[in-house]
Amino acid sequence: MRKSKSSSRFSPTFWVAVVMEFFERGSYYGMMSVLSVFLVLNGDEGGLGFTKEQAGSILGTIPPLLYFLPIVAGAIADRYGYRKILYFAFSCMVVGYGLTGIFSGSGFDGVGGRYLLVFTSLLVMAVGAGFFKPVISGTIAKSTNESNSGLGFGIFYWSINLGAFLFPLILIPVLKSYSYSYIFYLSAGIGVLLLLINTFFYKEPKIESSEDQSPKQHKSLGQVFAEMLLVIKDWKFLLMVGLYSIFWILYFQMYGTVLWYVDEHMDMTPVNNAVNRFLSLFVDNPSWFFDVEHVTVVNAGVIILLQLVVSKIVQRAPALPTMIVGIGFGTLGMAILSFSDSPWLFIVGIMTFTLGEMTAHPKYNSYIGMIAPPDKKALYMGYSFLYGVIGSSIGGFIGAALYVKYVEEMANPSAFYLIFASLGLFSMIALILYNKFWKSVK
After folding, report:
1. With contact defined as beta carbons under 8 Å apart, do 52 and 400 qualify?
2. Do 352 and 436 reside in the same domain of the chain?
3. I want to staple 126 with a disulfide (CB 3.0 to 4.6 A). Which of 65, 89, 289, 380 is the partner?
């Protein structure tokens, strides 16, 4: 029987990588959709009872590792092989998630150093996720060629958001109704599943592109750090990344302070009633309610529905101005959140922010590709992830401090959200000036 083009377009290794990405990102974003709230809930509510400043330290450390480690991990994977690094990455995930679940359980109530135990366990998980990131992206790159790489990476990114949508929507509400620890056990179990997939199905990818069929050239860590110095000398590149990073300080509030606010202050009854009226058309006596994990569901759902539409609209638009427009939408979304008494406006604010994210970020990647020297595009794309290092580290620490001051102590959440909106406005203005005086491409 003749194979269809769709079935023969991608290699089996490509599809294995897509499945791996779906499960790994689904478990990660499922955990992140409730982590910040779990850290600060008191023991009677099933949480760990940490202070918001302590939680902010975790949130300001874990995501930056995920964005920084790929810079080094990619070189290590090229040297020792993707499959070996995947074994290391998944093992770290199993240990990190599993120990977090154990240390979060009731058996550890009152144990001294619990904060340190949980923090360390999450760091182990983050090391695994940080090593996984470049390997799986590299697998997609090596399993596609010029004719199908666009579609291939589209499927790849779709799998990320599908995982971020389905896990918090379906699994997280059920698991946390029993114990938050079960969420970490699920993620550890998925790590075991990924180890099995790596053992029986994953194959070391061969280069499909016709551009380079030469033997793999391994980079030493010394070369990695030499390249780091080379990038640091490009001040225009670092300035642009730094200005863009300010916007991502806002983004990382969606996994921290915004979730605290939903849990502690938002009355989502009108939304719950509307959804349950719709569900009653299909089931008897539905009892759905909006909870913190659904912030991630809204974010991922909007991307799944609209990313292709938005990308089509801005396809021919210049990169940097489009980035600025996207940051404008994100800033508007954060400003809308300042009208915190309305649950419907709250959801509109999240959706507007997501619209900004999906407008700005693909063009950011495109812009980096255009300004990078022709022989150093891969190098610059690797260091473009510094936006996440800067945005998440600053966002985690200052987000917690500002939340305590403005929301808890001053009872002024509007001021809290408007401070972040002003950061978005500053990022816009600074990039407009950058575009006027220092832009490298149109």
Report:
1. yes
2. yes
3. 65
Q: How much is the pLDDT for 218? A: 55
Answer yes or no: is 98 within a domain: yes
| Token representation of residue 275 | 């959804």
Residue 37 lies in a domain: yes
Using CA atoms of 183, 249, 245, 437 in order, give the dihedral in degrees to the nearest 10. 160
* Cβ-based neighbour number of residue 220 at 10 Å: 10
Beta-carbon count within 10 A of 305 CB: 12
Query: Is the distance from CB of 26 to CB of 193 less than 8 angstroms?
Result: no
d(CA 430, CA 331): 14
Helix (H) or strand (E) holding 353: helix 343-371
Q: Which two tokens stand for residue 45?
A: 């509510």
**What gap in Å lies between CA 67 and CA 134, rounded to an integer?**
10
Task: Determine contact, residues 238/384, Cβ cutoff 8 Å.
Answer: no
User: What pLDDT score was predicted for residue 211?
Assistant: 42
pLDDT of residue 8: 43
- Nearest partner of 17 among 210, 124, 155, 149, judged by Cα: 155
Query: With bands split at pLDDT 50, 70 and 90, how would you rate the model's confidence at 219?
Result: low
**Local structure of 174: helix, strand or coil:** helix
If asked whether residues 313 and 431 sit together in one domain, one would say: yes
Kindly list the distances between the CA atom of residue 281 and the CA atoms of 193, 276, 278, 284, 285, in Å, as whole numbers in the listed order: 37, 9, 6, 8, 10
Q: Is the CB of residue 186 less than 8 Å from the CB of residue 4?
A: no
- The pLDDT, as a whole number, for residue 232 is 77
Give φ, ψ of 40 to 5 degrees: -105, -15
Residues 15-54 as b or e (16 or more Cβ within 10 Å = b): ebbbbbbbbbbbbbbbbbbbbbbbbbbeeeebbbebebeb
The CATH number for 410's domain is 1.20.1250.20
Which residue range is the domain that position 159 belongs to?
Answer: 11-200
Phi, then psi, of 312 in degrees rounded to 5: -65, -40
Residues 146 and 285 in one domain: no
Residues 261, 180: one domain?
Answer: no
- Total structural domains within the chain: 2
Q: From CA 391, how far away is CA 245, in angstroms rounded?
A: 5
Cα 198 from Cα 89, distance rounded (Å):
11
Average pLDDT over residues 34-53: 92
Is there a single domain that holds both residue 65 and residue 107?
yes
Same domain, 223 and 196: no
Average pLDDT, the chain: 87
E strands present in 142-257: none
